[in-house]
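User: I've been trying to design a sequence by hand for this structure and keep getting stuck. Would you show me what you'd pick, starting by listing the structure so we're on the same page?

Assistant: Good idea, let's start from the same input. This is the structure you sent:
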């Protein structure tokens, strides 16, 4: 860590102590953090973001010793996932203790916990001595931030007035949010796909030498009902985004779309679209997704954005693509070919 970062962390600890918020770098996206024991800071997070109170915050910890005070139950399955995937992009939702404010849990009886791997985030939590509640550092429903500059664009006034301090830890390495799982003794249910893949979670239990863990069921429950903030429209750009999924190969662009494209009742001519191309490698595609969306949004020569995504017929939503496609689906104001994402492996899951 640089001397400048050390200095920023020292300032951030003080800032948090006085009930303010700090924008923090993590390996997933930047978060807007407040101490979990400060109602003032927790309320400020919701106000800055204009986040509805029904959307719970993830609690970020820096060591496993902080867990017992935060939870009522800590199932063996949760413990084994934490030891395998933390520090990292996995949020474990378990029954909360009374020490977790209802502001954090949005009145639910559960709390989402994560131990991030970014050294600046971990050092800050460790030196604060109290876990930090932190949602993504963007206004509610908008594109997530993956650089400190993205955060500065989101909250210019609050940063100027000193209400929010921005800790710059460079661009986020992963670029999409954590995988959120509700965990009980015998079931792990994926509420939001993210940085840790479903395949990794399955493989982890399958290879366990503890019989009770081998039998843990891994399911998907990706919907607003179970994961309240994960709304159908989320991660939205300011200009309308069209996402087109193609199977196998990319046909000549626009072939299926024509020259004048309707998005939510508005017509856009083809020349006014800004095309965004994602890398074929999912690690790179995830890392660049939000930056590319934000950059294209600012392009004064275009009125709308389009992403054409070629998917593999065998496993359309495997690996990190599950998280990327989830974000594209929610960010888009119009989708074409979305039915191609329905994986034959998961015929009955809700979407
Ligand atoms: P964000 O940090 O903005 O990416 O949002 C965190 C998301 O995690 C929320 O929108 C919820 O979807 C999910 N989450 C956090 N805590 C819980 C919880 N206790 N139960 C279910 N989902 C949760
Ligand atoms: Mg968010």
């Amino acid at each position: 860590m640089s001397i400048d970062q050390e200095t920023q962390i020292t300032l951030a600890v003080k800032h948090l102590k006085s009930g303010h918020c700090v924008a923090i770098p993590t390996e997933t996206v930047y978060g807007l953090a407040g101490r979990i024991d400060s109602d003032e800071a927790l309320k400020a997070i919701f106000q800055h973001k204009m986040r509805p109170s029904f959307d719970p915050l993830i609690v970020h910890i820096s060591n496993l010793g902080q867990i017992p005070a935060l939870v009522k139950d800590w199932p063996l399955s949760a413990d084994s996932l934490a030891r395998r995937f933390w520090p990292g992009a996995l949020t474990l939702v378990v029954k909360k203790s009374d020490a977790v404010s209802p502001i954090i849990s949005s009145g639910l009886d559960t709390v989402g916990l994560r131990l991030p791997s970014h050294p600046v985030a971990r050092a800050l939590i460790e030196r604060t001595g109290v876990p930090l509640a932190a949602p993504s550092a963007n206004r509610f429903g908008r594109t997530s931030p993956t650089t400190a500059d993205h955060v500065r664009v989101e909250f210019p006034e609050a940063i100027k007035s000193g209400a929010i301090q921005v800790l710059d830890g460079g661009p986020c390495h992963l670029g999409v949010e954590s995988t959120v799982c509700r965990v009980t003794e015998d079931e792990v249910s994926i509420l939001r796909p993210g940085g840790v893949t479903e395949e990794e979670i399955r493989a982890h239990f399958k290879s366990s030498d503890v019989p009770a863990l081998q039998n843990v069921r891994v399911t998907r429950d990706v919907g607003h009902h179970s994961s309240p903030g994960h709304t159908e429209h989320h991660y939205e750009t300011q200009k309308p985004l069209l996402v087109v999924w193609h199977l196998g190969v990319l046909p000549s662009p626009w072939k299926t779309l024509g020259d004048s494209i309707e998005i939510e009742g508005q017509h856009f001519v083809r020349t006014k679209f800004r095309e965004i191309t994602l890398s074929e490698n999912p690690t790179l595609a995830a890392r660049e997704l939000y930056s590319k969306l934000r950059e294209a949004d600012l392009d004064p020569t275009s009125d709308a954005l389009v992403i054409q995504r070629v998917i593999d017929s065998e496993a359309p939503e495997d690996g990190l693509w599950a998280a990327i496609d989830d974000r594209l689906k929610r960010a888009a104001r119009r989708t074409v070919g979305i039915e191609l994402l329905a994986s034959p492996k998961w015929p009955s899951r809700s979407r």
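That's my pick for every position. To get oriented when you compare it with your attempt: The chain has two domains: 3-166, 241-341. Residues 241-341 form one domain.
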